[in-house]
């Protein structure tokens, strides 16, 4: 199978590419290589004969169409997106362009491609987020039937792209499958996100900023479990359907940070607990209180189960960052140094 992976140099995208190469697929990566795209994340597969890379912006409709014509893919896994909520608050325009217009270009390219090629088994997996559902109360889970209620510019643009993907299936017959996942974590995660930021700040003995009271709840999904889920959805999922992907690992943000501190205390001890570095800061605007995924449909229909608990996954993640300074140090020094993002501009 030849799979076009958009955003393949990103965090989740590179995990998908490494997994697909390992199970025998041919992978074509299209990535603009923004600040979050990193070819080093594809280093383990970059020399493989079944790996191809194309540096292009999915907002360039001509480039997208040319890649379809050149490679004639059997499937698309669409991960290219601007994804950081904080950045969407202070700079929403690029989120609209990439997440909405870029998705439109891909869907249109797929539609035209299918109209001229008899590719019966073609699939288009549109990868999205649980943030499109908005915020939960203390109880309940997001299901595939939960109404959309996005809170941030990021989640609003992802909701828009989900609706486009489903419309292109219903109107034009493009065999689209939508997935909505919970918070990912693991190796090769750009250090603007909570877990890698905490690890690297702790390593540098810098403050560990926690928004508000730290009681916001997220469901955590190890990135390699997510990659396996997308592989199953690609081959066995039903076009027109939505599948929620979650790790069944709900944690308050403050507990996540404390668990990182616990591992740092064990692996990089200092003269006091890393917990003393925790600093509560002003909450971000529109901060959803709780996300939690019901992954029963994926588990029961396709037989997927998360292999990592949060406890096993966070240990692997902390150990990976401590052992892979060469990957993250250039990012920390030249791309993002840990400053506060998401402050509303006047």
Explain this structure to me?
- By secondary structure, the chain is of the alpha/beta class.
- 41% of the residues lie in helices and 16% in strands.
- The chain has eleven helices and twelve strands.
- The strands form three sheets. The protein has a seven-stranded parallel beta sheet with strand order 3-2-1-4-5-6-10, with helices on both faces. Strands 7-9-11 form a three-stranded mixed beta sheet. Strands 8-12 form a two-stranded parallel ribbon.
- It is globular, with a radius of gyration of 19 Å.
Q: Which range does the strand content fall in?
A: 15-25%
Instruction: Report the uncertain regions.
Output: none
**CATH topology annotation of the domain at 2-189 and 220-251 and 289-310:** Rossmann fold
Tell me the structural class. alpha/beta
Strands, count: 12
CATH class of the domain at 2-189 and 220-251 and 289-310: Alpha Beta
Distance from first to last alpha carbon: 49 Å
CATH 4th-level superfamily of the domain at 2-189 and 220-251 and 289-310: NAD(P)-binding Rossmann-like Domain
Q: What order do the helices and strands follow?
A: EHEEHEHHEHEEHEEHEEHEHHH
Q: What does the main sheet amount to?
A: 7 strands, parallel
Alpha plus pi helix count = 11
Question: What is the residue-averaged pLDDT?
Answer: 97
Q: Under the CATH scheme, which architecture of the domain at 2-189 and 220-251 and 289-310 would be assigned?
A: 3-Layer(aba) Sandwich
What general form does the structure show? globular
Helicity range: 40-55%
* Rg result: 19 Å
Strands in their spatial order, largest beta sheet: 3-2-1-4-5-6-10
């Amino acid at each position: 199978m030849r799979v076009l992976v958009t955003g393949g140099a990103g965090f989740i995208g590179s995990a998908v590419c490494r997994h697909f190469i390992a199970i025998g697929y041919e992978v074509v990566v299209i990535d603009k290589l923004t600040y979050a795209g990193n070819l080093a994340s594809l280093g383990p597969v970059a020399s493989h004969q079944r790996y191809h890379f194309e540096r292009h912006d999915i907002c360039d409709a001509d480039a997208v169409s040319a890649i379809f014509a050149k490679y004639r893919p059997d499937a698309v896994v669409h991960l290219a997106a601007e994804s950081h909520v904080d950045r969407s608050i202070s700079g929403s325009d690029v989120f609209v362009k990439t997440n909405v217009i870029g998705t439109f270009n891909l869907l249109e390219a797929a539609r035209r491609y299918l109209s001229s090629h008899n590719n019966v088994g073609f699939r288009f997996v549109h990868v999205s987020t649980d943030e499109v559902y908005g915020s939960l109360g203390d109880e309940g889970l997001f299901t595939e039937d939960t109404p959309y209620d996005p809170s941030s510019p990021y989640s609003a643009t992802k909701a828009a792209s989900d609706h486009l993907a489903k419309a292109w299936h219903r109107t034009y017959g493009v065999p689209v499958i939508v997935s909505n996942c919970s918070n990912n974590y693991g190796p090769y995660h750009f250090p603007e996100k909570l877990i890698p930021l905490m690890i690297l700040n702790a390593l540098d003995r810098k403050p560990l900023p926690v928004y508000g009271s730290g009681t916001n709840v997220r469901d955590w999904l190890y990135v390699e479990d997510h990659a396996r889920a997308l592989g199953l959805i690609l081959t066995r999922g039903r076009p027109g359907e939505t599948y929620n992907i979650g790790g069944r690992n709900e944690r308050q943000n403050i507990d996540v940070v404390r668990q990182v501190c616990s591992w740092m205390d064990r692996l990089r001890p200092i003269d006091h607990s890393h917990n003393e570095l925790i600093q509560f800061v002003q909450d971000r605007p529109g901060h959803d209180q709780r996300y939690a995924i019901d992954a029963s449909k994926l588990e029961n229909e396709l037989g997927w189960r998360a292999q990592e608990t949060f406890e096993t996954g966070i240990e692997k993640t902390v150990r990976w960052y401590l052992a892979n300074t060469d990957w993250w140090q250039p990012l920390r020094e030249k791309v993002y140094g840990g400053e506060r993002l998401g402050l509303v501009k006047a």
